[in-house]
Amino acid sequence: MSLNRSEVIRTRLREEGSTNRLRDILRHILRLEGWQTLWHGVLLQLVRSVPNTAFTIGTYELVVYSLHWALLTRNSSNSATTTTLKTQPPAAAAAC
């Protein structure tokens, strides 16, 4: 989201060709269109990135949780220890 301003300027550089410099385009945007123009498209960017980030974090937590349990059940030889560990979720999964 913080890079949205640079994306707007970069898009203008591509559209307007190589005759305009970064400073000229920024000056044009601020003078004629206003500073709000630098934030155009931020809502669409959030709509696209928030679900993707939530899915990535959720998948990561599920994989960590599953691997944790798989390693605990495979490596534990004492059945009492296994029972105790199975009833207590790992800290990473419990935090969600």
TrEMBL record:
Record membrane topology: Multi-pass membrane protein
InterPro entries, per database record: MCP_dom_sf, MCP_transmembrane, SLC25A33/36-like
Renumbered ranges of Solcar repeats: 1-66
Tagged with keyword Hydrolase: no
Principal subcellular localization: mitochondrion
Location in the cell: Mitochondrion inner membrane
Signal sequence interval, chain numbering: none
Record PANTHER family: MITOCHONDRIAL CARRIER PROTEIN RIM2
Protein name in the entry: Uncharacterized protein
Organism: Heterodera schachtii (Sugarbeet cyst nematode worm)
